[in-house]
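TL;DR need structure tokens for one chain.
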Amino acid sequence: MNNSEAPPAVALSDRELEIVNLISEGLTNQQIADQLTIKKRTVDNHISNILNKTKTDNRVALVRWALLWGKVCLDNVNCCPLPRKETEPN
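>> reply
TL;DR here they are.
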């Protein structure tokens, strides 16, 4: 994607959005795996799928995409609520 192209709008699963958020916080794949109590290889697969869906080439481009589409909030900039589970209290 070059600078003049608009990033594509895509639907990501709740888990994929969670991983994008953790990437935006600067976590490594292993740290994400540890935090989500899943295998690193599973995180690798999720990230590969996310990069394909968003047509981004790397983590930096992915975070840029997420900021442009309001998928992440960094230091109270571009803040948006993440989808809540039905069981979460108000």
